[in-house]
């Protein structure tokens, strides 16, 4: 396959990916949590593909003598380099590296300037050297973005990182061998090296396109899996997630060892907040008070939203008396907190019911006992902590 055909294939491939982006992740008219805007990483990635498509197309046109080569080549390579740099930037944006712009912009200016200098000195040798090494460097940056958080990364991200790094080294090898062995190196002729270079660029285009789409699908699956066990408003476990966390501690309670406590609490008269100030204000109050509660807990403690404004807290290796002290600390923190909303400063109180997991407990009996203590706190005037009655000792048989 001649070079013009390969370059044209790269151009058309990137154009096809850009066309697919038009129909990918279109924002909904209603209920769109992002406010009708696409993610920044997707926008950056789309522009990077358009720049690469324009660059490769201009190279193909220049190779076919439609546009003067001395004009087409510098502009085309500048677009391709910029496109690959922004593709790496999109991956850094997706990985959470928000400071990539402050590094990418000067690096891109230096890279394009170095290429133009090499092109001005030598249109063939130094041009091939500069383009290969610069593109390889930016592709390695993309591989580093994919490899960020390697220990927690999925197998897909690890594969994409390794494959991108390997293909980037193939791209960079062309420039290195052109510098070290202009006539070829043994069986590695310049023609074979050029073919490998073109194949690597083509595979990087496919890998980048399909990889991005697969990562998007993986992110959606992760979000759906998280929503099964996490309450999105309170940012804590939902009822299902909390019972999943509770189950192993219920089993451990049947063995000798430190006790585990359960605390139920309910925000007192929360309905009046929604009725008086609206549900948006109620959401702000709820999120703020949940954050106040989290600050009173250890890393091993687990908070869950069971229903409405009723929450449960699992306190591993904590006695009922110690759990009551934790509940009292949370009660005081909630009562002292004033939440600023658009319409008013709102303060609330909370009632707490505390119990410990017993060896003969099921989740039904445990929750019923804690709920009974919570009801006692509310009937006692709210804004207080009530303990479940201790277990009745079984008399020994004569």
From TrEMBL:
Q: Which residues form the signal peptide?
A: none
- Membrane-spanning parts: 6-24, 71-91, 103-122, 128-147, 159-184, 196-215
What are the EC numbers?
2.7.7.65
**Listed Gene3D superfamilies:** 3.30.70.270
Q: Which InterPro entries match?
A: Diguanylate_Cyclase, GGDEF_dom, Nucleotide_cyclase, Rev_trsase/Diguanyl_cyclase
Which reaction(s) does the protein catalyse, per the Swiss-Prot or TrEMBL entry? 2 GTP = 3',3'-c-di-GMP + 2 diphosphate
Example GO molecular function: diguanylate cyclase activity
Keyword tags:
Membrane, Nucleotidyltransferase, Transferase, Transmembrane, Transmembrane helix
Q: What class of enzyme is it?
A: transferase
Q: Which residues form a coiled coil?
A: none
Pfam families assigned:
GGDEF
Q: Where is the GGDEF domain?
A: 258-390
Q: Which SUPFAM superfamilies match?
A: Nucleotide cyclase
Q: What is the recorded name of this protein?
A: diguanylate cyclase
What organism, scientifically named, is this protein from?
Answer: Massilia aerilata
């Amino acid at each position: 396959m001649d070079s013009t055909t390969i370059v044209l294939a790269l151009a058309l491939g990137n154009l096809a990916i850009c066309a697919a982006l038009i129909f990918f992740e279109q924002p909904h008219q209603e209920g769109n949590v992002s406010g009708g805007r696409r993610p920044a990483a997707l926008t950056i990635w789309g522009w990077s593909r358009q720049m690469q498509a324009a660059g490769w197309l201009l190279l193909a046109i220049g190779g076919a003598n439609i546009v003067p080569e001395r004009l087409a080549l510098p502009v085309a390579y500048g677009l391709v380099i910029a496109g690959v740099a922004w593709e790496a930037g999109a991956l850094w944006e997706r990985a959470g590296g928000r400071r990539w712009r402050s590094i990418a912009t000067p690096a891109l200016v230096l890279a394009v300037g170095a290429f133009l200098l090499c092109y001005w000195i030598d249109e063939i040798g130094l041009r091939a050297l500069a383009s290969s090494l610069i593109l390889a460097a930016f592709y390695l940056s993309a591989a580093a973005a994919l490899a960020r958080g390697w220990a927690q990364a999925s197998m897909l991200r690890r594969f994409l990182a390794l494959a991108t790094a390997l293909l980037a080294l193939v791209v960079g090898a062309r420039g290195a061998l052109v510098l070290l062995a202009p006539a070829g190196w043994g069986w590695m002729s310049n023609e074979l090296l050029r073919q490998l270079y073109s194949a690597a660029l083509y595979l990087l285009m496919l890998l980048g396109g399909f990889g991005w789409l697969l990562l998007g699908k993986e992110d959606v699956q992760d979000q759906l899996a998280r929503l099964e066990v996490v309450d999105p408003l309170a940012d804590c476990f939902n009822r299902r997630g909390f019972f999943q966390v509770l189950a192993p501690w219920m089993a451990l309670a049947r063995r000798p060892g430190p006790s585990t406590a359960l605390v139920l609490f309910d925000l007192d008269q929360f309905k009046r907040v929604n009725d008086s100030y609206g549900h948006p204000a109620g959401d702000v109050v709820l999120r703020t008070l949940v954050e106040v509660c989290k600050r009173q807990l250890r890393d091993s403690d687990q908070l869950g939203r069971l229903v409405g404004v009723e929450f449960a807290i699992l306190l591993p290796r904590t006695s009922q008396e110690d759990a009551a002290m934790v509940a009292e600390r949370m009660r005081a923190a909630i009562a002292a907190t004033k939440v600023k909303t658009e319409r008013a400063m709102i303060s609330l109180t909370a009632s707490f019911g505390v119990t410990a997991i017993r060896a003969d407990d099921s989740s039904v009996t445990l929750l019923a006992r804690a709920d009974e203590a919570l009801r006692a706190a509310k009937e006692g005037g709210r804004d207080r902590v009530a303990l479940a009655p201790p277990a009745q000792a079984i008399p020994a048989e004569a």
